[in-house]
Input
Amino acid sequence: MHVLLDLTARPVIGHRGARAHAPENTLPSFRLGVEQGADAIEFDVRVTADGVPVVLHDPTLDRTTDLSGEVARLPWDRVRVADAGARFSPDGGRTHPWRGKDARIPTLGEVVAAFPDTPLLIEIKTPTASDAVRRVLEEHAAVSRSVVASAHYAALEPFRDPRFNVGASSVESTRLFRQALLGTRPGPVRYQALFLPFRRWGMMIPSRRFVAAARTLGCPMHVWTVNDVDLAIRFWRTGVCGIVTDSPGTMRAARDRA
Output
């Protein structure tokens, strides 16, 4: 069983790799996350103007690279030369240890190929990326080790296929949250797991009642982005399965205390 679908597992999920220690959503960050013991790696996908699925969180290059511009309006040849380590600083801007060190924005295909045995959590940032993501996962025989998630319900429609593992969209998770809050029995769902922020609407999301409702459906709940050890232990003891974190090594050590 996929570690992100196993109700008995407590996976540590590397948020954009090991984001606290290396430039997010780059191959070096993913390598470091795996080295630190992440059970799965999480990353975001968008598409370039010429249809190439790339691993990047923001709609623009501005925050994380030395270039600027909207990815959806730029060709891959332009995106690929950006230095994705240019702005990374572990000390508030005093130093930039990854600047000029060939940390680039990778394609989805490059990530899938570089980590052939690693479970993947793929966040699709826009529905326009869905078909390209599906094609790459099929071409690389990576369907079974991937879980595809998105805030957008429409982005998940191409994956409503028994071969794919799908996370709940925002509207679906909100519906289950309300049902749990009201004590209403949830009906059939079209997803296999939930991936949620630990705080929303001014409240802590993974309450015991909400977690129990998800477990009743056979759906593990995973929470992002948790970097506080005590908070992670609290969530694990509440019944949350996975912790998405910027520092997988730290959370693996914390898991033994939960």
About this structure: The chain has a mean pLDDT of 96. The first helix runs from residue 27 to 35. The radius of gyration is 18 Å.
